[in-house]
Design goal:
Length: 82
Amino acid sequence: MMQLSIEEHTFQAKSEREEQKIGMLEQELTIKMEKLKAKTEREWLNADKERLNLEKERLKFKVDVLRQRSQLLKEVLTIYYL
């Protein structure tokens, strides 16, 4: 087997270091993408939660109005049949 020259060893070492750097950058990018994905999902869940809370409040209001109308109707009928 031929011996590698000093330049070839140096080039090979630099090449391996560059490959390691690329691998680490890819891992860093993957982590950042996962964090962004999790943040986006959390924001969507918060928005969904807020929409559900608004719908709940709207339904509570509707129930209150219906109760008031029912009570008024009872009072009117009571007065009418007295």
